[in-house]
Design the sequence.
């Protein structure tokens, strides 16, 4: 597939021409109307049952079979005969820009909506192709995943069953979708309820020779975990759980963790408004997930 970066132009092109070029490069496209939103479903597709054979909300994967550009992301296509068809003509006359379905092209777009989100990405994520937006940047990775909004302050993930505006080819080399981006969608599981009794939160017992050569390695890891919790602007519950999970996955089996280390993590979480009970539950859930 031709990469989007291979599509270049010196002057803005009408939306239909841009759409045809992107489709030829392998990007499934759809028109966006005023307000930069998809066109509404046609009357036939809003009926019960919808004429296209799908469901009006299109919550299941797959393209819409309606000849009109219906169902937002599900209308996206690389079929140039459909894009230039009479059924799409009126939409292109009203269109103000073009969008594409990242997941349909095997891509994931990390939509960074403010300067703080961009700074976080530059500090935390592997470099990849970036595209400037009005308020931030799009970071585009090779690989698809499920789409989730608000995974952290100012950060949305757009891939399968979502659309992203085409804002140009961007700069940089596209790299593979990293696990750290996939992990942003991890939600804390329901609290594990054990038999009624006091729930201790011990430091895990060692299970072998410690692989960490110096105490500085552990101290640096705990400090980074504290910082991650402290800097969280939203989704505090999920951030605390993911942080506990990360710490335990690295240090939970070697016996390095002490009560003092755990207390530092709990203190950071409680400073963000978490209760002692939630901290205990999150720690217990993380240990259960890892089989500790």
Sequence:
């Amino acid at each position: 597939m031709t990469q989007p970066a291979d599509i270049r132009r010196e002057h803005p092109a009408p939306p239909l021409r841009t759409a045809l070029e992107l489709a030829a490069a392998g990007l499934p496209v759809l028109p966006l109307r005023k307000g930069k939103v998809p066109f509404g479903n046609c009357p036939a597709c809003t009926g019960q049952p919808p004429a296209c054979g799908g469901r009006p909300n299109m919550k299941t994967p797959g393209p819409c079979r309606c000849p009109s550009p219906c169902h937002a992301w599900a209308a996206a296509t690389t079929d140039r005969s459909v894009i230039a068809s009479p059924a799409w003509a009126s939409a292109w006359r009203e269109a103000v820009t073009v969008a594409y379905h990242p997941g349909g092209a095997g891509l994931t777009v990390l939509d960074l909506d403010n300067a703080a989100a961009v700074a976080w990405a530059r500090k935390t994520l592997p470099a990849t192709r970036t595209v400037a937006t009005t308020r931030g940047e799009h970071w585009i990775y090779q690989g698809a995943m499920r789409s989730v909004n608000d995974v952290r302050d100012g950060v949305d993930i757009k891939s399968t069953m979502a659309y992203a505006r085409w804002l140009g080819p961007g700069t940089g080399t596209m790299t593979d979708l990293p696990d750290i981006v996939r992990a942003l969608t991890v939600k804390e599981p329901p609290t594990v309820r054990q038999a009624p009794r006091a729930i201790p939160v011990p430091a895990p017992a060692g299970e072998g020779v410690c692989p960490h050569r110096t105490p500085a390695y552990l101290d640096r890891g705990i400090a980074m975990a504290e910082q991650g919790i402290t800097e969280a602007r939203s989704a505090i519950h999920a951030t605390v759980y993911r942080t506990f999970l990360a710490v335990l996955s690295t240090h939970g089996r070697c016996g390095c963790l002490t009560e003092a280390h755990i207390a530092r993590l709990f203190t950071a979480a409680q400073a963000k408004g978490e209760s002692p009970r939630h901290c205990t539950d999150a720690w217990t859930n993380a240990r259960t997930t890892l089989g500790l």
Summary: The longest helix spans residues 215-230. Residues 54-58, 193-200 have pLDDT under 50 and may be disordered. The chain has nine helices and ten strands. The first strand starts at residue 29 and ends at 33.
